[in-house]
Amino acid sequence: MKFNLGCKLNYSVAASSTLIFNLSVVEKKYQKILQESLQIEPSMNYEEYVTPVMENRYLRINASPGDLQISYQATVDLSYQDEDPSSIAEIPPAKLPLENLHYLYPSRYCESDRLMRLAQHEFGDLIPDYSRVTAICNWIYDNVTYLSGSTNQHTSAYDTATERAGVCRDFAHLGIAFCRALNIPARFVTGYAYNLEPPDFHAYFEAYLGDRWYLFDPTRLAPCNGFIRIGIGRDAADVAFATIFGNVQMEYKDVFVEAVPDRDGKTPRLPDYTDRAIALI
Q: Are strands 17-21 and 242-245 parallel, antiparallel or unpaired?
């Protein structure tokens, strides 16, 4: 399916400041950028950096005092692969690709070392395959309340497991921490999400099983096969949509994702992948 997506961000800059954004989608085999545009008002120079491995796209702006408006739009062709989840096994650390080993380690917001006892108690006896990560997502959905405003930039997976409330960022962190506590590589993902209400940037996670990464979202707020990736990292510290150095206040944020109508002008529907695994190809 093809999607039109984007965001508009307005800021009030009180003093000369530096802003780093991570809001542009990445070009991947399963995610083709057909067109995109970036507008900055007032017009000013900016720098873009693409990380060599994860291919996250970071935008740096050095802004003077006054109003600042960022507008990004893109059209993306999305084509995930669906698979039978019953045939997807976990891979022991001895056989994992070396480049994925660092996704087994605890990180700032995913303290898997502090959640090992809970993870073993809840999931240690389950079959070590795709179904165990599904069980992790089900546990989070059943035991953690999705509650806007209940957490902040300091909230970690351990906090979420203790307080049992959070938003998509916290659900993803907890899912990642549980996976890593069970020796399953997992990483944090930010993106645009089709049919997410209310529209916003979304956070979910990917787990490495078999020979590839698979999408998981414990919030169940939107279909995984409608996720368009912005960035990946160990946790949210690596891929915040905006990092601000200076006296800056956000005044407005608007995020949108729309399906591109087909030739007959009809809005296509996402395939129902409820009982399938969504793989990155």
A: antiparallel
Q: How far is CA 222 from CA 96, 239, 243, in A?
A: 30, 20, 26
The pLDDT mean for the chain works out to 96
pLDDT at 13: 97
Determine whether 276 is exposed, middle or buried from the number of CB atoms within 10 Å of its CB (0-12, 13-18, 19+): middle
Model pLDDT, residue 53: 83
∠ CA 82-30-6, nearest 5°, is 115
Q: Report yes or no on whether pTM surpasses 0.90.
A: yes
Alpha helices in the chain (DSSP H): 116-123, 130-143, 157-163, 168-181
pLDDT band at 281 (very low <50, low <70, confident <90, very high): confident
Tokens of 200: 């916003």
- Per-residue confidence (pLDDT) for residue 56, from 0 to 100: 96
List CB contacts of 10: < 8 A, sequence separation 6 or more. 67, 68, 69, 70, 250, 251, 252, 253
Average pLDDT over residues 23-41: 96
Q: Count the residues in the chain.
A: 281
CB-based contacts of 153, cutoff 8 Å, min separation 6? none
Residue 268 pLDDT more than 90?
Answer: no
* 238 three-class SS: helix
- pLDDT at residue 263 tops 90: no
3-state helix/strand/coil string of 136-182: HHHHHHHHCEECCCCCCCCCCHHHHHHHCEECHHHHHHHHHHHHHHC
Cβ neighbours of 246 (radius 10 Å): 14
Q: Distance between CA atoms of 67 and 23, rounded to whole angstroms?
A: 19
- Taking each helix axis from N to C end, the angle separating 116-123 and 130-143, rounded to the nearest 10 degrees, works out to 110
- Would the CA dihedral through 55, 70, 257, 149 be positive or negative? positive
